[in-house]
Write a structure and sequence with these properties.
2 domains; alpha/beta; 13 helices; 4-stranded antiparallel beta sheet; Aspartate Aminotransferase, domain 1; Aspartate Aminotransferase, domain 2; single chain
Length: about 400
Amino acid sequence: MSSFRKASRIDAIGVSQILQIGKKAAQMKRDGKPVIILGAGEPDFDTPANVKNAAISAIMAGDTKYTPLDGTPALKQAIQAKFLRDNGLQYDLDEITVSSGAKQILFNAFMASLEPGDEVIIPTPYWTSYSDIVAIAGGKPVLVPCHQENDFRLTASDLEAAITGKTRWVMFNAPSNPAGATYGAEDYRPLLDVILEHPDVWILADDIYEKIVYDGFEFVTPAQVEPRLKDRCLTMNGVSKAYAMTGWRIGYGAGPKALIAAMAVIQSQSTSCPSSVSQAAAVEALNGPQDILTDRCDSFRQRRDLVVDGLNAIEGITCIRPKGAFYAFAGCEGVLGKRTPDGIILGTDTDYCNYLLDKAHVAIVPGAAFGLSPYFRISYATSEAELREALSRIAAATKALTN
């Protein structure tokens, strides 16, 4: 019997390091160790009651059959209203697509648009799936480091330097995972001016954390800031983060009709339509009361301040205060080169994170997983009690290091 031979397209692609860390931490918990897991990008809140009730009503009404390929009319209308209400953007229904999670929007877009060797510019630190999805689609990820002194935002000069004749897309994720980086209109302006000079370059704007912003920050999206780029911009979003609906798997995007039609071809040969029940729930999430988002965002802000202040109080750790999302992206250069109580020298951010998991029983994700070291990411989408305990453990474990 011959052995399995995997496709060469995934030779350089593995399971997300975030998932690997989560799997190890979960096994440690099953083994009885008091592990605190701060690696998942998932709100700890429950899905709002009105959204759950809408799903139950859909089930009881027999709304459990196949739907149109890329979204029900009701959900597309709710998305259309959301873009107009929140972003001042007008889209026709055939310029809107719905998928089984925002990740599938990315996958459909890149599969539908990339030829072998086409380049996609990805500011780093970046969500780990971006580059792998580009690679699976035959494209080439072009990673452009964004530095802490600019709040992990891309600069116009670095963008201009990264664009070549093969550049097909520039990705923006704001607020970002993992750094919580945000772009106001004044931040986007020079970047969009660069893209205007390159008519073959398109924008993919990942706005999944749109509703989780702090300190009076005013969210904007590229197509809103520069209407001349709307016809080469795919704006994607979803209900997972804002409405605590990660398991419902509904993402959506809006862009030029030809792109949306091409994405539908890809989806028709993979998942086909998203879940009918999840779509009914998403309609209520987008159309229903939105006041719960403000309350939950305020809770996230309090946790952010707890975590950022706690990390900055630890010698060797530095952390800027993000204006969005629910992550803290902290620098750990000050602990590298130090020795653990077991005599192991910490050479990388991955070493430091492994040490904290093994000895402090706190699971966090190294910056290397997001394309930028030496940093680590903490998700503060968990209870304040767990965050306080985790910070205490991190502080004690770090203090135990020696030169």
